[in-house]
């Protein structure tokens, strides 16, 4: 593994950082989240059409750039630095890889070029209220209990008739960008309880009128840069993602989840690094007892600890971009670094850090909201440890069924 960034990756980072520095400052972020979409549509068009960010990791035959997860992680880190409100995470990180992995050739040809061009945004809607569980990061997807398990609750699907269509019933909460996306990718159960299985369905919302039976409501979110929605379906027409209903959607969700964790970790690292840089600049200017508070040894120690946390999390995030199996642990480390760094940033900014006018609270709310949406950290680590077999044989783990007292690992 070559840990050095390539010239192309450095150029991607420089270009994105310069553009966001001009158009996504704290005041720009506050203005963007107040729009109907929840982001700056003009800036999104520049990022999509000018830089090709939505299609960065998509194959070239579908209009993408054909880059890999490392380039996507670089972009996500820069988006995190600016707390960029945009459909990038929901569209390029969560939804597009599932369409590319499970869709028929006809579906990929119809959807992915529009996604790559920024003309179509997408959102992944999973019932059960836990995105991290649905992506296999904090729980087991076997049986579908994470989303109703075929019983009451969740989203249910049934064949509409002889035309091969489907109808969806139910609702999903906390759908990232679900209120504005032009395409909903919905996880639903079919087959009843004895033969229940989870499938993914497509619902287009970018037509001249909304599909019948679909109601989308933007929810009040702790972090306004992460707009969430409730999606309600009442006999809503949908298209199955894939050629037939034998597709293993849960396995695809788990694979996509591990890859998404690396991108999400990089984004959290970017936010933590920016919060730390702003704090270092502030303590160099704020004076107490006739000298800058950054010159006090206690403050230096706190900042040094934060620097080590952020850099360690950054290394973990880019390792996960190379090896997605490490995605869950990298995400846990990045979310923890973001939480600790933003909390310290508020403290070290003193009284001004608690005011709505200062950007410190924007980073703090991003940390709290990310852990609610993608964590919590202890569950990410627990699930990764069980997969690795630290508490006994995990998936693919070799070794005795039970470890002896001397072999047990405290986590």
UniProtKB/TrEMBL annotation:
State the signal peptide span.
none
Q: Name one Pfam family in it.
A: Acyl-CoA_dh_1
Keywords for this entry? FAD, Flavoprotein, Oxidoreductase
Q: Which GO terms describe its molecular function?
A: oxidoreductase activity
Q: Which cofactor does it need?
A: FAD
Give the matching InterPro entries: Acyl-CoA_Oxase/DH_mid-dom_sf, AcylCo_DH-like_C, AcylCo_DH/oxidase_C, AcylCoA_DH/ox_N, AcylCoA_DH/ox_N_sf, AcylCoA_DH/oxidase_NM_dom_sf
**EC numbers on record:** 1.-.-.-
Q: This protein is called what?
A: Acyl-CoA/acyl-ACP dehydrogenase
* Organism the protein comes from: Streptomyces laculatispora
